[in-house]
Amino acid sequence: MSSNPCLIYVPELLQYNFGPQHPFNPLRLKLTIDLIDQLGLLTPTLLYPPESAVDADLHTVHDRHYVDAVKKAGDTGEAEPQDTQYYELGTEDNPVFSGMHHASLLLVGGTLTGAKRIASGKADHVLNFSGGLHHAVRAKASGFCIYNDLAVAISYLRSQGMRVAYVDIDAHHGDGVQWLFYDDPEVLTISFHESGKFLFPGTGTVYERGSKAGFGYSLNIPLEPFTQDQSFKEVLDMVLPVALEQFRPDVIVSQHGCDGHEFDPLAHLSFTTEAYSYAAKTIHQLSHRLCDGRWLATGGGGYDFWRVVPRVWTLLWAEMIEKGDLVDMPGEWLKKYGKHSPVALPEMVSDDTEAFSPKPRHAEIMEKNRLTAEKAMNPQFLLKGDPSRTQLAK
């Protein structure tokens, strides 16, 4: 189905680095690109370097004063007390590092470069697995995210007159993207995440549906802790095809955080690689059915960077280029990284799902997730626009 896929990467993207003790470790990018390469999934014609974003790109979604504060902190290597108070810079989640603004510009530029290539028709599918910083909002860093690359890319696609469907499968709610387009009926945001009752950022209920003209254009599917593949796939099928068929996007932008995996230390979902491959395949098929294959994908969260992140994002890229027959992990990759990993590295690209037993309360969790999806898809609210205007019209 794919005619012109593109992978955005250069080693300089590793410079977005909060330090060795921080869970957002850029080594996961290196592990992933090496795995993709050693599996023979990368040729020079598929690889494309990012163009660094500029301040004007950031200003489409971020406050100028906030951008100035990030620049200053990156230059001095520390945040002023008021910048920590107002902008969440210099916190445990978002520590300041030297060159932070410029490293962030390159990361944002990666996703923006993908958006420009799709809008110009130079590519249909683009993957920037270094992107996916979905928590940053207009004037605040949040959850390891300094700038919101997804929002900058969506803003650009909107400027080209495109309707954008945003799909987020990170374990954490895609709050930043949701809030930045909350009243825009030309951007549909859909987030599947662990319930905010148990996990940062605490938002993402089914009652967050958008505002004003954008009412009904925000969809949230908060999942129960310990949700497994079968339940995730069921609610994905209940929600995604119906919502996207009704919205009829010009392009799909998707965030593929893989911190919902059973092995991930920062969340409580219990997916295997099967859940992520299924989501990628579903989005891929919908992109061709609804918007001529236009699909911009990013990475996101993922904190078991030895066993999970490289395999999930490699499987995502393999779906994009239609190389779905991956079996064994390459011996050279295992030999190179196995001596550094504190855990035994998997020898298969995909998990053996039979090795993951059903969780206690499995049936109850499935039923709760099913009811949540039904509530989210209530036709009384879905894609309705400003309810006050509808009321006035009556």
TrEMBL record:
Name of the molecule in the record: Acetoin utilization protein AcuC
Species source reads Metallumcola ferriviriculae
Checking Gene3D superfamilies in the record gives: Histone deacetylase domain
GO function terms (MF aspect): histone deacetylase activity
Known PANTHER family for this protein?
HISTONE DEACETYLASE HDAC1, HISTONE DEACETYLASE HDAC1-RELATED
Family, similarity comment: Belongs to the histone deacetylase family.
Read off the Pfam families from this record.
Hist_deacetyl (PF00850)
Every Histone deacetylase domain range = 22-319
